[in-house]
Amino acid sequence: MTGLTPEEATALMLSLRVAGVAVLASLPVGLAVAMVLARGRWPGLWLLNALVHLPLILPPVVTGYFLLLAFGRKGPVGTFLEQAFGLVFAFRWTGAALAAAVMGFPLMVRAMRLAIEAVDPRIEEAASTLGASRLAVFRSVTLPLILPGVIAGAVLAFAKAMGEFGATITFVSNIPGQTQTLPSAIYTALQVPGGDAAAGRLALISVIVAIGAVLLSEFIARRVAARIRGA
To answer: CA–CA distance from 105 to each of 10, 31, 125, 152, 156 (Å)?
Structure first.
């Protein structure tokens, strides 16, 4: 990429890869959790809500430390995944994606939950009375209505993933070409004498990517809303 060193270009592409994988992997889980929080009526729901929002409250470094304890090669989950599936998270780009997914998850769930709560349940009940199954009602009625909220949640999670630093560097360190994302590259540049120019370039790229993601989500959400109104 013009104006970027190979190391900076690698950090940019890795950030996009990490953020994309984090969003795609957490989207189905986030939608399911949002449905439970929005429509669930069982005792203890507050505990699930608290756990979902915990990454927003805890310092990111603490979240990264917990991920290292659980998903590290000596952690219970990490050991099982490595032995059973050969999947390693600690000090790998996959770990950066996991950390980004965890940090962006609360924002994704909240946006989708608000969209679900805005849907009139009577619309879904009307579809059910016509003989449609729950899955059919969700696919043909609920999902189209909440799609703008789903898109908004995905974009918020993507933006959070692109800017995630504390949990990522604690869990997977800052290894150039492997786990060094844009925030880590900016941090590294600021530690080097004369690195202000590189940090400025990377910061500008971060802003451009974030603004582009927001504009794209707004465009898609408006198209979806217009299609729903015209249906």
So the answer is: 25, 10, 29, 12, 9
Q: Tell me how far apart the alpha carbons of residues 140 and 167 are, in angstroms, rounded to a whole number.
A: 38
- The predicted structure's pLDDT at residue 229: 65
3-state secondary structure of 47: helix
Compute mean pLDDT per 10 residues along the chain, 231 residues long, and list them. Answer: 77 94 96 92 87 93 95 92 90 94 95 89 80 82 87 90 93 91 92 88 89 81 69 56
DSSP of 53-100, one letter per residue? HHHHHS-HHHHHHHHHHHHSTTSHHHHHHHHHH----TTSHHHHHHHH
* CA-CA-CA-CA dihedral for 111, 113, 119, 122, to nearest 10: 180
Task: Give how far the C-alpha of residue 79 lies from the chain's centroid of Cα atoms, to the nearest Å.
Answer: 24
How far, in Å, CA of 75 to CA of 60, rounded?
19
Predicted model pTM: 0.88
Q: Is residue 103 within 8 Å of 60, Cβ to Cβ? A: yes
